[in-house]
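Hey, can you fold this one?
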Amino acid sequence: MQYKSEKTIFIYFVFGILISVFGIMIFAYTTEKDPIGVLFGMGIIGLLTGFLLHSFFNTNYTIYKTELKYQCGVIKGEIPIQKIRKIEYNNSIFVAITLKLGWSHKGLIIHYNQFDDVFISPKNRDQFTLELTQLNPNITIKK
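Sure. Predicted structure:
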């Protein structure tokens, strides 16, 4: 089953700021006599916004037979469900892990292998964990 990433209001605020800055740069471009610097800035803001929008609309998690597959924009990967040791609920804004693949601060920290972990934010966390524990009953859940 496929789960989309939950999104918080904060990310919409970030997109609003990026679009506002882009609009200001368009205005500056039309009024500048030497618009090369403004064009460069517009290019960088446009690329950043495009990359974030691509990741925003293409973040999902799929439980498929024996694997948990994740995608966040161009970042893709899979975790064997039998290697998952623990699932930890997280509601904190700051998460001390190396790979954060979600658009919400409310999510799950998946601990797998011996020292690996990943943060994901599926829309229905309870259903997601239930489906994983049905496939691997040895998973410890920490709420």
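The chain has a mean pLDDT of 90. Let me know if you want another pass with a different chain boundary.
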